[in-house]
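Standup notes
- HV: blocked on the assembly model, inputs below
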Amino acid sequence: AQTVTQSQPEMSVQEAETVTLSCTYDTSENNYYLFWYKQPPSRQMILVIRQEAYKQQNATENRFSVNFQKAAKSFSLKISDSQLGDTAMYFCAFMKSGGSNYKLTFGKGTLLTVNP
Amino acid sequence: KAGVTQTPRYLIKTRGQQVTLSCSPISGHRSVSWYQQTPGQGLQFLFEYFSETQRNKGNFPGRFSGRQFSNSRSEMNVSTLELGDSALYLCASSLAGVRPTNEKLFFGSGTQLSVL
């Protein structure tokens, strides 16, 4: 079974600054996907970024980027130029690759507050 | 393109009752999965349906069940409600190809169930 750990329950950052959220995971699988989801007060889970484990290059999406360390089983999210709208719960998630594996295993989440 | 629609947004029930939640996926999406979110347990996978068949199931008692219709809409049912069933129930849909190589799971805003 897979486990995902987010060791920072809460974090805060000043607007326009950079913040990094941590995530580690445990799996015996070699092929898998990692995700960061954002859940604002509206409760809808929004996909922020996705990483395929077979790709060495770190994924980026505008102000969001990841630092994927497969050997260390680490998957951190960096948010640059933080904006007030980035305030939300952030969840790291794991999904096995292949076949019909549409099951996400989530971490407990990190509450990020962006201060003006 | 309309997103994932969950109804109702809020629901209040009493212990022992049963409840049915509905999820309409994004048009063209064939996979629908359900997650339970609570403050204590976080996000937990309930089950996933594809082409009217349950493909994956999480570790929940038999009181939790679901189904998918030919138009991909899905319902989940919880019978004999317990206080611990109070949670946000999230539905996610995806295209569900043979391999989730480029797949993304899109979530709805959830149904908040309160059991009194």
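- HV (later): unblocked. The mean pLDDT of chain A is 94. Chain A is about 0% helix and 50% strand.
- Next: hand off to the docking folks.
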